[in-house]
Amino acid sequence: MILLITSLAKAQGCAGALQDATNEAVEVAATLHSAAAQLQAQEFSAVVIDQLLLDSEPEEAEALFRHLGTAVPVYLNFAVSGVERVIRELRSALRRRAREVLVARQEAQQNLRHELAETITALLLSCEMALQVPELPPIAEAKMRSVHELAGEMREKLGE
């Protein structure tokens, strides 16, 4: 969902054009205060903000920024920007956000793989050391081999 923040009369028309262009629902807020309340109530993928409102209400703008969450902000001067420019800027911001999310997800997966690989290596080494203990009871040896085998399978699944 997209939040459009502007007090201009053309807000509803712009909201409709944004909805058509992005296939996302668009909500309109005429003030920064009402926009902050909407940001607290629900999640938005983008927030299109009229620069004139930010300039005229700096304290309210600070409150708004605290509630943006993961929404990508798009700043425009609606007095000089046409609907087509708003659409271009929004699409660009949404593509940028999608790339950033993808990169963050890939980094998180890679970090988790490395952490799991280290733990699995430690588990395999511990199992191998335990299996070398003299006079290990047969049932303990069977359990240790089973754990070793499972850890090996996990390593293969991680591709390490």
Task: Please sum up the structure shown.
The chain is an alpha/beta fold and 160 residues long. It has helices spanning 11-22, 32-41, 51-56, 58-66, 83-131, 138-158, and strands at 2-5, 26-29, 46-50, 72-76.
Can you describe this structure?
The protein starts with a strand and ends with a helix. It has helices spanning 11-22, 32-41, 51-56, 58-66, 83-131, 138-158; strands at 2-5, 26-29, 46-50, 72-76. It folds into two domains: 2-102, Response regulator (Rossmann fold); 107-158. By secondary structure, the chain is of the alpha/beta class. α1 (11-22) packs across α5 (83-131), α2 (32-41) runs parallel beside α4 (58-66) and α5 runs antiparallel to α6 (138-158). It has a four-stranded parallel β-sheet with strand order 2-1-3-4, with helices on both faces. β1 (2-5), α1 (11-22) and β2 (26-29) form a beta-alpha-beta unit. The protein is 67% helix and 11% strand.
Topology readout:
Blueprint: E1 2-5, H1 11-22, E2 26-29, H2 32-41, E3 46-50, H3 51-56, H4 58-66, E4 72-76, H5 83-131, H6 138-158
Parallel strand pairs: 1-2, 1-3, 3-4
Helix pairs in contact: 1-5, 2-4, 5-6
The run of helices and strands is EHEHEHHEHH
Average pLDDT number: 92
Share of helix, binned: 55-70%
Q: How is the largest sheet built, in terms of strand order?
A: 2-1-3-4
Structural key phrases:
4 strands, 2 domains, rod-shaped, Rossmann fold, 6 helices, 4-stranded parallel beta sheet, 67% helix, alpha/beta, 160 residues
